[in-house]
Design brief:
single chain, about 15% strand, about 40% helix, alpha/beta, Rossmann fold, binds NADPH dihydro-nicotinamide-adenine-dinucleotide phosphate
């Protein structure tokens, strides 16, 4: 059985590493990115792995999400990974409203748009899983340092969105997990981050592998530990 995974923001960082690891393991990878022409690292990876298909998708453009779902209507998606995300800087007195609305669109609303547009593809698949990259920074319980209004609130929002989704798609046999990847060395995480993408993604893939209807609707870190909302 060959499984198929769809990954958003697959051109760099954590998304690129997901693409590499799943392709290496023989999965078919639908690697989505908003600028395939300039996705050099992903293009190079696809040259080595014939099971990677690069697809154009800006997740902030909901019409594009629907169009892609239609284009792939005869295909199954075993695992949907909502990975694309943005981190606009913000602090008390300095949180740009447009940045905030854009971040909500990308970090909070797009994951649900993806899940709804691809529900049939996922429900028809063997594994039936949706995984969304959130962040511990979206955890109420973990917030002891304040700040980062935009990023934190968009990740808190996606946590709730995914919780509701987990309940609503349970009858279709689809399991949902919200993920914290750790503090990871990427453009977003920066070079001081604690772990590399390889370690993070290996852990996240294990969490996704262990996801099923009995543990759906949880918020889990790359090391398998559950995170308090
Ligand atoms: P990067 O900044 O390295 O990469 C972000 C990815 O998201 C890029 O591929 C980017 O594409 C893509 N993206 C952004 N906006 C859009 C859009 N509108 N449409 C399609 N793709 C888009 O981030 P990471 O790899 O570090 O993060 C991946 C996920 O993990 C994010 O959701 C992030 O919030 C989360 N996370 C990361 C942590 C870390 O320490 N790194 C910690 C906690 C959570 P493009 O190249 O076109 O900009």
């Amino acid at each position: 059985m060959t499984y198929q995974v769809l990954i958003t923001g697959a051109n760099r960082g954590i998304g690129l590493e997901f693409t590499q690891q799943y392709a290496q393991d023989g999965w078919n990878v639908l690697a989505c990115c908003r600028d395939p022409q300039h996705a050099g690292a992903l293009q190079a990876l696809a040259k080595v792995h014939a099971n990677i298909r690069i697809l154009h998708l800006d997740v902030a453009d909901f019409a594009q999400i629907d169009a892609l779902a239609l284009q792939l209507k005869n295909e199954k998606v075993d695992v949907l990974i909502n990975n694309a995300g943005v981190y606009p800087e913000s602090s008390l007195g300095d949180a740009d409203t447009n940045d905030w609305l854009d971040a909500f669109k990308i970090n909070s609303i797009a994951p649900l748009k993806m899940a709804t547009a691809f529900t049939a593809h996922i429900a028809n698949s063997e594994l039936k899983k949706i995984a969304t990259l959130s962040s511990k920074m979206g955890s109420m319980s973990d917030n002891t340092s304040g700040g980062s209004y935009i990023y934190r609130s968009t990740k808190t929002a996606v946590n709730m969105v995914m919780k509701s989704l987990s309940i609503d798609v349970q009858a279709a046999g689809i399991a949902v997990v919200t993920l914290h990847p750790g503090w990871v060395q990427t453009d977003m995480g920066g070079s001081n981050a604690l772990i590399d993408t390889k370690t993070s993604v290996a852990g996240l893939r294990k969490v996704i592998e262990e996801l099923n209807l009995s543990n759906t609707g949880k918020f889990i870190a790359y090391d398998g530990k559950e995170i308090a909302w």
